[in-house]
Design brief:
cell inner membrane; seven-stranded parallel beta sheet; Rossmann fold; binds uridine-diphosphate-N-acetylglucosamine; GlycoTrans_28_N; 15% strand; 15 helices; globular; Glyco_trans_28_C
Length: 376
């Protein structure tokens, strides 16, 4: 008989952690409509809006990240961590989950640590080709570790690892809209080549500077751009565009909710090398120029990017060189049909097609075993 299970999913901070979490939740619900799912996030972070928007309940912990530069500031962080563990314990006692899933980011630390200590099976999902600190700490207790890159036995016990790929939002695949309509929906011209420029879920200063300094070049290029700036950069970006005068070939926004349409519109993408973005680009076979962020732990975006670049599946521009050549490379490449085709064929080979369902299966198995063992 079908068992109804209760699942806690925890983590967040950026889209790269939140969207895989939502995708896993959707897959669990699709397979087991009776399943009850509760998210645990970090107060004030992006998940507190995005998760309810996806239709799930979320509870926030007062957790914050360690300040690696000013160590003395971490006294407050440790107090918050203790308060978070106390709250996580209360949430777990009340909800009584059969399994806890961690997707990385601040909240998953206290939640999975407490869940594991209470004997609840835990599963972690590591999006990147280099394991994050939180996931490394949680790995010892975890029963299963779902990863997206080969070679992760450098960080984790190989018997626990399952190579699943990163789950992407279900709505991103097979969009019904045509390329032409997608381009029109951004107020652009379907006759022209279109470049989508995304700086990850929070935006990227380097990419934004390239556009702001290259507005004249864009005007004269014959190519059009969909430009996502990130929330904190949007005012500066709009002011620069206003100063540049009429720019019908440029659409600018802080955040694109409908990424399916944006990808559909794009002949070429310029992107940071966040793991979630890369998984989407693989599944949608999109030609891309990757500009890894140098500001992330252990430089993991460069490692994510090189996994593709070494297979001729993406072009690569270093952050430090972007100012000098990113726009020129994009404007040239988007007009070379042969290069675009080759990049598209090669990147598609790296796609993992069914990640969310495979992870949902593992979550279900852990939960059902736990219920059996505990007579629930
Ligand atoms: C600065 C930082 O810490 N970045 C990390 C963060 O990236 P970040 O949050 O940028 O994550 P990803 O590139 O993994 O994913 C971004 C997600 O946001 C979506 N999106 C983006 C822009 C937009 O306007 N609308 C939108 O919906 C994308 O479609 C994608 O689903 O988590 C990733 C996964 O652990 C890491 O690899 C990144 O290094």
């Amino acid at each position: 008989m079908e068992e109804s299970i209760k699942v806690i999913i925890s983590g967040g901070g950026t889209g790269g952690h939140i969207f895989p979490a939502v995708s896993i939740a959707n897959a669990i619900k699709a397979q087991h409509p009776d399943a009850r799912i509760l998210f645990v996030g970090a107060e004030g972070r992006m998940e507190m809006q995005r998760v309810p928007a996806a239709g799930y309940d979320i509870i926030g912990l007062p957790v914050a990240g360690f300040d690696r530069k000013n160590l003395w500031k971490n006294v407050g962080v440790i107090l918050k961590l203790i308060r978070s563990q106390i709250k996580a314990r209360k949430v777990i006692k009340e909800f009584r989950p059969d399994v806890a899933v961690g997707v990385g980011g601040y909240a998953s630390g206290p939640t999975l640590k407490v869940a594991g200590a209470m004997g609840i099976p835990t599963l972690i999902q590591e999006q990147n080709s280099y394991a994050g600190v939180t996931n490394k700490l949680l790995a010892k207790q975890a029963r299963k570790i779902c990863v997206a890159y080969e070679g992760m036995e450098r960080f984790f016990d190989k018997d626990k690892i399952i190579l699943t790929g990163n789950p992407v939002r279900q709505g991103l695949l097979n969009p019904a809209i045509s390329r032409e309509d997608a381009i029109r929906s951004f107020g652009l011209d379907p006759q022209k080549k279109t470049v989508l420029l995304v700086g990850g879920s929070l935006g990227a200063r380097t990419l934004n500077n390239c556009v702001m300094q290259g507005l004249d070049k864009i005007k004269q290029s014959g190519v059009q751009f969909i430009w996502q700036t990130g929330k904190i950069y949007i005012d500066e970006a709009r002011a620069a565009v206003a100063r540049a005068g009429e720019m019908p070939m440029l659409y600018v926004s802080d955040f694109i909710s409908d990424m399916a349409t944006a990808y559909r519109a794009a002949d070429l993408v310029i992107s940071r090398a966040g793991a979630g973005s890369i998984s989407e680009l693989c599944l949608l076979a999109k030609p891309v120029i990757l500009v890894p962020s140098p500001n992330v732990a252990e430089d993991h975006q460069t490692k994510n990017a090189l996994a593709l670049v070494n297979k001729n599946a993406a072009l690569y521009v270093k952050d430090a060189e972007a100012g000098g050549r990113l726009l020129d490379t994009a404007i040239e490449t988007v007009q070379q049909a042969g290069t675009l085709n080759e990049l598209s064929t090669n990147i598609a080979r790296l796609a993992f097609k069914d990640s969310a369902n495979i992870i949902a299966d593992e979550v279900y198995k852990l939960a059902v075993n736990y219920k059996k063992e505990h007579g629930r």
